[in-house]
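User: My collaborator sent over this chain with a note saying "see what the structure looks like." That's all I know about it. Can you take a look?
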Amino acid sequence: MIRHRILKKNLSGDIKIKKTLAFSIAELLVYMVVLSLLMLPLLNILKESVNSSIIKTDLSIIQNRFEKAYSVIELPIFYAGMGVPLDHNEYKMSFNNVMKSPFFWNGPISVVQDGRYTKLRLVYAVNLGVTVTKTKYLHKNDDKTISLSSNLDRILSRQTPLNIRNIILIPSSYPSRTPFIVEGIHPSERKLNISSYINNSYTRIPEGSSIYQLSAYEISARNGILYATNYRVTGDQPLARGVDDINFELDIDRKILKIYFLMRGRITYPKIQPISNLSLWPDTLQSDQIKKNSYYKRRVYKCVFPLVNCRDE
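Assistant: Without extra context I'll predict from the sequence alone. Here is the result:
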């Protein structure tokens, strides 16, 4: 609205008028109401965009957490059973029936229930990057010294009696599923004295055979974290976060392991969130976490692992 303001009269008696722009309070209020009405849809669009971005980020976190959990157990599952007997009785005999984990387990791969938690037990081989430099034939009363391409004195343990760090596997030997116990280490000569509790009558270790070390994991999920009890070190090792639950289906006849992950995000929402892909979790597998309501976004993943090193040769 245009306002007129009289300034002063000039010498001829004419009045000089200056035009100015101004708004009344009522007009300002009207303009503000109109502006707010126009801005409201834009604010809603902005709010939806921010919420959508938050959800996408949270779903990405769930995916990344799953990939981390998958990656840390993939290799132990692949190498599970390499170089050790598959039959549970022979497996125990190969470690002199010692009543100590993992030597008394029910074979190189098994699933056990420990209270509220389901655990996967894996006995697997870790490549040491060392090879045998000369073919060796081991008979019951013969010298059982093998020559190596590098020293292993810093990797192996000198502790006694039977120690998991002191057991090596040579899958290319014959018979191939023969765990060897290291009885003596000769760093200067790059040699090891070895023995075994099974297949004592005859064993052939070809030149160029790779040396592996025995290792064992016991995997479970507790309090939103995937843990592994690593028997080469002390205590439980946290492997990945955001794992609300994990369960296993082992088909030892078909040599297949199925793993079901219940993963969650990082953000708590104001309302209870449904579980995505819930149909992938079998009804036959018990889970307290599946039954619980949660304000986190959660998603079920199913993975199928062929147990390539648990197949009969």
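A starting point for your reply to your collaborator: The chain is about 20% helix and 40% strand.
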